[in-house]
Design brief:
The chain contains 3 helices and 8 strands. By secondary structure, the chain is an alpha/beta fold. The protein has a single domain, classed as ABC-type transport auxiliary lipoprotein component (Rossmann fold, 3-Layer(aba) Sandwich). It is elongated and about 55 Å long.
């Protein structure tokens, strides 16, 4: 009888430990490209680039890191969460990347200061930004560059893919950062070809 009581007590303690040892959620943020090796910003920037609010689909705009499953299924991981609203994080990373890639521009984000003169505005709408069923991360975006008067100077659609990623949420977040870097480089190259303050036709 004593032996049975001891065994039962140990079983209760063991089960209690297992129940109490719940899985902890991890928190992630997107990383900008390393500014190391980038050209230093000029003392008097040639123009000011404003990065407006980034728009993302509703299925991405949630606290959990999301991924694509088969047959249109959206997968969410309750134990992998964003440390900031995903649209805000993408805006932050784009702005930091562009500041490193365009040292002759001053890059600001909304809300803009009332007295700020914005020479070019970047508007970004993401269509896709998630890990795919094949393990890669696909980022598809539509983006416009507007002049100071609101005229559309550039209108493009971009598709970037990061592959060879580690499994799990950490690999998905790293892939998203890589794809955003590629998108930033594409945007920076296009903006660098524009006259700093001149209006131009849609291209």
């Amino acid at each position: 009888m004593m032996r049975r009581c001891v065994v039962a007590a140990l079983a209760l303690v063991s089960s209690g430990c297992l129940v109490g040892r719940s899985r902890e959620a991890r928190t992630f943020v997107l990383d900008p490209l390393a500014a190391r090796g980038a050209a230093a910003p000029t003392a008097a920037p040639a123009a000011v680039l404003g990065v407006t609010r980034v728009t993302v689909p509703g299925w991405i705009d949630r606290p959990q890191v999301t991924a694509r499953g088969p047959a249109g299924e959206i997968l969410t991981d309750d134990f992998a969460r964003w440390g900031e609203p995903i649209a805000k994080g993408i805006q932050r990373v784009l702005a930091e990347n562009l500041a490193a890639l365009l040292p002759d521009r001053r890059v600001v984000t909304t809300p803009f200061a009332t007295a700020e003169t914005i020479d070019h505005r970047l508007e970004v709408t993401l269509v896709e930004a998630a890990r795919q069923a094949d393990g890669s991360v696909l980022l598809e975006a539509r983006w416009d560059v507007l002049g100071a008067g609101g005229d559309v100077l550039l209108r493009r659609r971009s598709s970037q893919r990061a592959e060879g990623l580690a499994p799990g949420a950490a690999g998905a977040v790293a892939g998203a950062s890589q794809a955003l870097e590629a998108l930033s480089r594409e945007i920076a190259e296009a903006i660098a070809a524009l006259p700093p303050r001149a209006e131009a036709a849609v291209r």
